[in-house]
Amino acid sequence: MDKISKETGETGWKTSAFAAILMVAIVGMSFGLGVPLLSMNLELMTGSGLAIGINVLSAALSTVAVAPFAPKILARFPVRPLLIFCLLLAAFSFVFYRLFENVGLWLIMRFVSGLAITVLFIASETWISQLTPEHLRARMLSVYSVALAAGFGLGGLLVAWLGIAGWVPFLAGALICALGVLPLLLPGPQLLPPDLDETSPRVILSYFGKAPRIMLAGLAFGAIETAATHFSPIWALRAGMEQADAIRLIAVGAVGVIALQFPIGWLGDKMDRHKLLLICGLATLVAPLAMWMTIGISTLAVYSIFFVYVGMGEGIYILALVLIGQKFSKKEMAAATAALILMYGLGSMVS
């Protein structure tokens, strides 16, 4: 029996896993509100798509910048206080954006808050992987994925209801981030920190050689998610799709994530995970070509293909996390997850 099991018993891990997943769902809600809120306000402030693109790039750069150092941070600070700090910094960023309507300052704050959010995701994903028994890991991480997607979708609905003007949507974003602290007050086991001598950036980079297929999965997911979230509606518009239909692609993708993660998670606990990863990868390669062939012919066909594209793309990342838990020890998981998220950030930049 491992250290976590000894300290918590059979049900103790479930409380902490629930806390981490609920926190991530709340963070997802702040994302779903914050992404369109910032983009639309930047559009009003500048009238430039370039400003929006640079702002998105700054978030990806923050991921690449902090991921190699995240395991060292996890080795030095207990996970719950660390996550609370990250959440409060994210909450402050919403207030900052409203106080200072300046493109340059927004760029800096997007980078700083991106550092905190990257550490938050590395910590929460490592924590859930450590806590979950091997035979349940794929299903538990699929629950994590669905919670994040559902939160994102709810955030998008909230900003549509609140609008983008004035203090209200920004204060709502800050409040949502602050509410993420509440699940972390539940009792349960802490994350098992990595050894300090295994947390240098050089060690993190060594995981590219130890698990190249897993790391390539992170790169692919970064490109897929960024393309689906930021560029697919624009591509659809330019290809001749009606504006309202193109905007609905985002909702279709979110439904694809929610609908397909449970089947992928179940299969991930029943069959060879490398083969399942390959299937998801092939699906995401074929889907864009199929969309290009059907756009202008059938909107329903485009929606159906995009549903599969985004859902299977999310499956790539979840299976990569599952394979990290399968391949590496609990103390190695933080470093391996940091390497995966570093590749995700690079994929986001090259999408």
UniProtKB/TrEMBL annotation:
Domain Major facilitator superfamily (MFS) profile: from-to ranges: 1-351
Keyword Nucleotide-binding attributed: no
Recorded GO MF terms: transmembrane transporter activity
Pfam families given in the database record: MFS_1
Transmembrane segments: 12-38, 50-70, 82-100, 106-128, 140-161, 167-186, 214-234, 246-264, 276-295, 301-324
PROSITE patterns associated with the record: MFS (PS50850)
Keywords attached to this entry: Membrane, Transmembrane, Transmembrane helix
GO cellular component: plasma membrane
Alphabetized InterPro entries for the sequence: MFS, MFS_dom, MFS_trans_sf, MFS_YcaD-like
Keyword Membrane (UniProt): yes
Xref: SUPFAM superfamilies: MFS general substrate transporter
UniProt name for this protein: Uncharacterized MFS-type transporter
